[in-house]
Fold these 2 entries.
Entry 1:
Amino acid sequence: MTLREPQDGAAAVALVIVSHSEQLAAGVVELAAQMANDVELRAAGGTDDGRIGTSFDKVNDAVNELRAAGHDVAVLTDLGSATMTVESVLDLLDSDEATHIRFADGPLVEGAVAAAVTAQVGGDLDAVVGAARARELFT
Amino acid sequence: MSEHLTTAWALAWIARAQAALAEHRMELIDLDRAIGDGDHGENMDRGFKAVVAKLDAGSPDVASVLKLVAATLMSTVGGASGPLYGTAFLRASKAASENELDANGVAAIIAGALEGVVARGKATTGEKTMVDAWTPALAAAQDVAAAGGSATEALRAAATAAQAGAEATIPMQATKGRASYLGERSIGHQDPGATSTALLLATAADAAEAL
């Protein structure tokens, strides 16, 4: 493990919720937190000045803060252009960081809840990203 | 008209691009309202205003100007055009290895931009996106370079081809991005991203001709 252990019993994998809407990102975090008390959840919603859209800096800052705290990070998005913002952030990371930060492609709300619960029970990054994609869990 | 394009050209281009995007803001908004979320004109205007505020005449080379544009657009444009144009300018910057661009150098930075847009947006031609402007622009610039034309001629040919490419998106049905949710109702409207691409390349040619 090159990873430092997260402090205070927090789960190893943290989530960043990226939405065009600040309120939607915050709402998804609120919902996912209900079943995942020990998981670090960060909302990166809206643009820097509070408009509808996504912010490279908000995503980048959230990812870097969680990495600095010792977490692996799964990033979930609401729409295609949010995904492009996330991929831009991932592209500019150092290559040794890339194994610790992944885009989880799935339905935002169901995926975030599934991913958060998986992180809560100790799943690693692969398991959390897999859970975010696994829509069938909830249908 | 000078033979090779330098940092002075890049700075003049970006200043003209900002002015053109401000002038065409409402047009881009209207195009995007028809088939998208209506933010393209606002986002591009905002992004390039931020770029111009950060540009300084001390930029050492073309690549550094393009890289600053890339980073600023990624940070300040909230919509899809942020990562798309951000990646386009980033790859164009990497392709601008020579600080005095000839026609081949112009074709190389357009190739870099196209590659960036394709890598980020995963679109191909005929899907009613900015790829439909960048692709013919690259072919036109390469043709000029192969025929021994100048950098300025390559840019003008690219701009003309990009404009034709943007107009050719009108009868297309969108199959990428949010416009694709409209299905057949996306037909009959010019793609806003292809339109802003044509504007950018036109200002690049204008700046070169005015040197």
Entry 2:
Amino acid sequence: MTTKATERKQTMTLDGLEVPFSPGETLYEVARRHLAPVPTLCYDPRLEAFGACRLCIVEVQGMKAPVASCTTKALQGMVVSTATPSVEKFRKTLLELVVSENREVEVNPLRGFASQELSTLVNRYGARTGRFQGKHSGKSNKTDLNPFILRDYDLCISCYRCVRVCAEQEGDYAISVMNRGFSTQITTEFNADLRDSACTFCGQCVQTCPTGALADKKALRSADLPGEIEKTRTICPYCGVGCSVDIMTKGDRMVGVQPAMDGPANQGALCIKGQFAFDFVQHNDRLKTPLLRQSDGSFKEIGWEEALEFAAQGFRRSLEKHGRRSVYGIASGRAPHEAAYSMQKFVRAGFGTHYVDNCSRA
Amino acid sequence: MSNPLADMAKPDVIFCIGTNMTECHPVAATGLKKAMARGAKLIVADPRRIKLAELADVYLPIRLGSDVALLLAMAHVIEREGLMDRAFIEQRTEGWEEFQRHLKGFTPRWAAAICEVPAEDIEQAALWYGGGKPSAIYYTLGITEHICGVDNVQSLCNLALMTGNLGVEGAGINPMRGQNNIQGCGDCGAETFVYPGSLPITDAAARDKFAQAYQRPDLDLGEAMTKVTAFLECGKSLHAMLIDGENTVVSDPDRIHCEHALRSLDHLVVIDLFLTETAKLAHLVLPATGWAETDGVVCNTERRVQRLRAAVAPPGVARPDWWIIAQIAQRLDIPGFDYSSAADVFNELCSLSPTYGGLDWERVSSESLSWPVPTKDHPGTPILHVGAFTNGRGKFQILGYRDPAEVIDERFPVWLTTGRRLQSYHTRTQTGRASGMDYLLSEESLEVNPDDLVHWGLRDGDWVSISSRRGSVQMKVRGTVRSPRGTVFTSFSFADVAVNNLTGSGYDPTTHTAELKVCAVRIEPVKT
């Protein structure tokens, strides 16, 4: 929709440069669009801006105090500085406050998609740890034995990203904030295990957590496996929504799944199946060789050459004995196009019939 | 889907019928929740009080298989109140006058008696759907897995046509596909009625095109055989079968019949990842590479064509499905199977399918487009039917309500419906092997209304025997208000509880889709 307001380009000054913006954009959005490295810990582009961590503060000409850029809308003619010495010093102090409370800062990247955000910023700012010794907020939950989500709240910095993603994106409202100040604790209704809450184990809280306080327990099983984590972009193997995911591997071992934040169908969202039900892939039950049934009903492992010859002979025998209308093919709704296309071509080109179908009728 | 997933956050009014989206398509459901947070109204029609029902502004707990009655009555109210889009009807549809006359008798009071929901709620749903600008319909197998599945879908089309909710952002008729590539399977022509690109097998020009491309001059014109018929023909006219990755013994509507059919074949070859219940019946089982091991292409429910990429090596000597099929074909001297990569296969599909004409391996590897993509410079088609329908005018379908194939009676007094659960997928060949899933769902159970439990002298966790006209199974009962009184639910995911011994009462005459959503059963306690 075009209105007069959007047609007339609005501009502001960002670090000395005149830049355009769309009405409604926040200073943070404008700054990131122009690659100004404004730090933040409570921001997730999929969620409403929250303004909790104060790291994204910027100076606006004419305003007394710095403002949080994530909750301040850009206005025509605004003059904004994103990295003055005083703002940078303020950020460093804030980070030191956060870091002083946490048991550890460097966490295993298998913990979650955003788990490196805190350590990255601490290193960038050289924020000393342990400067503000004293009380700690957040206590790790060691009693929830669910196999998917580690609730290591010692590392929680109360950015509420987990609470907000659960409410705003998932609409599940399974977790919330209990108490305030040093007693702040993210928990469920009645402080119960996740299994006994509205949690669906979609894992979104894990993936948005910037410190690794919430972590992927299944991926962490491979923490001691040697090798770098590599990611391969693909599509989830379950329902028809077609969520984009990154498969995480170490060497030739699949160790976990993370959502693709720019996935066109899911924008970073996943469900329990796509997030956690991946380990059928390298399961011991997988078929490793062709199997030929014996007269006693058991299966014998054979090689490809023998198997393919046996397969072809059976179809040829049927064709010769009963004609081309005696062969049928069933394709899979779970295998890729190349499988489905080959199956229908096998039937149509091989036998001249349309005796092919898939599993969509049942 | 006529509209993209991104549109799910945009409707004014959302009508979900026969879809348990929060469990079966959870990520898509997040879009609806966002629309509702924005103030959109949600209408939910489903026999079970699923989570969507809890979120609904109006919830219609309709009796199993009564969808057509509900939809006719909603159309009646929309017509009576003049909520139609007259310009859309005038410019883009045909058969309106006849349909308008047809609707007169189908009052909400008439439907209320069949659907067993208050007439006022039907009125309200119709007023909201008819008044929404835009209104969107979402459905899943709760609509199609009936003997009247086609009637159900056409009834939804009638609603969208009369209100002009097609070809518009945030509107549409949107079936949610259940498997990662079931849409793609159809796109590739791996179903009996169509060639790749949805070209019908009854079309002589299409026949000639594929007869030539596949060097098969005697290619049949129009003679189809669905899987349902095929299982009836096993051991009669059919003697050899190639099954790729379908655990049909567990997913087929009638297990006893299915097993018997497969056992009567002279030659059954199954390609799969696991030794499934179906593979165990095969003469030969061939190991395929699976997800995370295979390069390929899939198509999602919004017709978006996307790349799969291999990340790890397959186990043992497992090979891609296309390679296995091509190798068998080559040994049968079937021409055109000398592929050397998945890209070769996909590019051949694109060269033959009009809807994929503008795609190729390279393009799908860097872009993600919704078909039709007829040419190389075409940007894809996120919304179907904008401005015009491909086949001319949208036709109103005159149809009436009919009972399911099987209704409850004295011997089988309880309705059974089946479906899926969040934590398990289909026949659990995958989720059953993923660690941790058992922590949340370790066994199947029969969901029964707590009042029914009391009435039937049962307690939570008791074992019961459930019998239909076709067979019986035993399982535990679980009291839950998700089930209305007189209706019970279970999933078909657990092979050890063969729910498909019970189902299979009938099939849609046009599509041969099984009526998995309705079955009359008897429930008796099992002495332990």
